[in-house]
Amino acid sequence: MTSRPAHRSAVPLTSSQAAPRRNRLAGLGLASLLVLGTCGLLPQTAMAKRLALLVGVSHYDKLPQSRLEGPVHDVAALRDVLQRRWGYAPADVVTLVDRQASRAAILRELAALQQRSQPGDEVLIYFSGHGTSALDTQNQLPVPHGSGAFMPADLDPTRGGDMGLLIGRTHLRPALQALDDGGRKVWVISDSCYAGQQVRSVATESTALPARMVPLLAGQALQELDQAQKLGADAQTPEPYPYQSVAYLAASAEGETARDIPAKALHQMPTRDGKPHGALTDALLRVLEGELPADADGDGLLSLAEVHRGVSDFMSQRAYGHSPQRLPAVVDDRRALGQRAVLTQRGMAAPVRANAARQPLRVHLWPSLKPRQSELGGVPDLQMGVPPTEADLVLRPALGGKVVLSARSGDVLAVAEPDGLADLRGTLLQLSYAKRLHAWAQAHRRAVLPAEIEPATFGGNFVDGQSLRFALRPDRAATLLLLNIDATGRVSVLYPAHAGEMQPLAAGDLRRIPGEGPTQALKVQAPYGMDVQHLFAFDSPPAGLDRLVNAQGLAPDDARLAALERTLQQMHGAFSHASTELRTHPRPAERKP
Length: 593
What we know:
alpha/beta; about 20% helix; six-stranded mixed beta sheet; 8 helices; Rossmann fold; 28 strands; about 600 residues; about 20% strand
């Protein structure tokens, strides 16, 4: 696998406009709803209630081949943890499961939320099941472009015209708008289809966790990502985000296939309670149970940004191959809705613990490859030969004598030729250093830095010719640092690129990297692969930053990077941090069969 180094010399600026952002909501596909307008927040009152509507569909009478194991368990587990730990009274949690979750019943309960709640109340709406959109080429269901749909239990694709879809633009927006206009604080979670691809789609794979290339997209997913980008480029600028207090957590981005973890896959990808779940929901439950530390700022609450970062980090470690999305996106979040607490029962969130101890990258080596272990020597913080259940990565033989480096989930990260095992050292260096730096940053940061790769709707997946920027919006006045780790393990500084960029950015201001202008964008070109980024916002200028300005191709043991690690320790609690992954791909026609 090759990698496209993300430093500016490798990704030349393009004179064309960066590809327009297309805004679609995971599962609900509310394309016209995703650009933030205003986000005024009402104060929490002493009498404010917490209400929830939880919808899960595992069985479809008219689609018997499309059974999902996770949704019924998703709803049961989420209801339990909300009532047991987060202050939701049993009478205020309504569940609709399988046949109960008809379109009419879902719409009725959405409308009832308005009558059951008052201004200032917290309303959680959760969907788990199949979804579709106009870009879902396999389903061919009547969904308008620019919207998506949840599939209720009574969906009947044999009916002409109205098949019973719950279409975001048509059915969900009015209900959400009424709650928003009424001053409710709404959090929507969708563990279902994201507009632009199949998440838990009709006619699912028969395998437990359908294998696909990570970071490279495979087959249909790549076709759909390409189609999504082309349609988005032709679309008109979306209307402003109409909500003031509606936040979203969505299972995946465009061009990605999210995972349902069935019973037969639990030995490979165990869930927290040993029952089938959606991958997003399993990660979310771990956060809500306090098993995944997510309270980065230690205030005892969970913000949308903290939940998103917590589930994203866990799912990235497991390499499920899809990226949870928070909405509004960072570039749209002018009034810090992402920093608002989505769960306000104090003392339930697990704080992120300071642990700067060097954690090795753990690799399980198949027995037939143990004689060749020395070919991978020289990678620091690498622990070989661990049991597969404890490994981060697996090295295994493949057809033709090739060697595959995969995540524990089985998803492929890199492939070496029979005589090229040493070629995997670069990927191991990259992942080892990225893990080490993440541990240092997590141990010493005071908060999660709102940051993303723009357009955020693609979840870090981009094809050849696509333009992109890194976007961040610090909560305090800050001096910025953006590091890129390429697939050879080399580290480059993307920001600051010159001394002028060392000036602090005002609190709440948006900074796009490399810049705001139409010619200031990074453009994807060969070679393709994955780069890992670490983004820092320092509350005061860190010592030694001038030595990192525009530094390119640094080895992980470079003295300047060692000094940065010491700086992170010295600035404990005085910076925010985030990490991203950029995955680039050729267009489908260029891929070899």
